[in-house]
Amino acid sequence: MLHLAKACESLKVRAVIRVAFYSGMRMSEILGAKIVKDYFYLEDTKNGQPRYVPIHPKIRTAIRHMAVPRSTMKYHFLKARRKAEMDWFNFHDLRHSAASELRNQGVDLHMVGGVLGHKSSQSTQRYAHIAPKTLIDVVAKIGKKAA
Length: 147
Description:
This protein is mainly α. The chain has a single domain, classed as Intergrase catalytic core (hpI Integrase, Chain A). Helices cover 50% and strands 7% of the residues. The protein has eight helices and three strands. It has helices at residues 2-7, 11-23, 27-32, 70-83, 93-104, 109-116, 121-127, 132-139, and strands at 34-36, 39-42, 51-54. The protein has a three-stranded antiparallel β-sheet. Strand 2 and strand 3 form a beta hairpin. Helix 2 crosses helix 4, helix 2 packs across helix 5 and helix 6 (109-116) packs across helix 7 (121-127). It is globular.
C-alpha cells in the first residue's frame, strides 16, 4: 500500500488508497461514506445492510480528502500503479490486503468479517491470506506451554 500511495501524484487519490487499506472498504463505499464521529457510515453496502467502519488513527487526516470523482480516482490509481510497477494490482486488492493484515496480526476471522461487512465466514476466508511468516510463528508454538 505504501509503495503504491507514494507513487500516486494526486494527494486526494493517495488519501483514498490509504483509507481503503486502513478500513477494508470498497471504492464505492469510500466515495459514498459519511463520517459519523469515529466511524464511516455506509448506508448502501453490497450485502444490503448498513454498517459502521471505525476510522483508523492513521487516516484521520486523510478523510478530509476523500471527495474524489470516480473518473479522477481511476485515472490516478492506474497511473500510480504503472509508476509503482504494480500493473497486476487492482484497487479491490487493498481490501484483500486489509483483511490479510488483520489476520496476520492475529485477528479472528469473525472480527475480520465484521470489519469487511461479510455475512459469512466463507466470504472472509477468500479475502484473508495468511503470510508465510505468520505460519512459521504459529508452527513454532507447537509443544510450548501456554503462558
